[in-house]
What we know:
mainly alpha, 4 helices, about 75% helix
Amino acid sequence: MDAERKSSKAGDRAAEGLREATSKDEAKTERQMGHDLAKGADRFEERSKSSDGRSAEDKRKG
Length: 62
């Protein structure tokens, strides 16, 4: 079972490449916007509102 969960070297390289690409894309977006993107819980709330203008808490309430 442990062998099934162990990541391969190719998988590790792919994950690292994805992290780098994401970081570059985020930096590009921040430059275009002129400010840093929200992080953590603030980012979750920002993304939730961007979809329909309502916060995640408002959506849960109905």
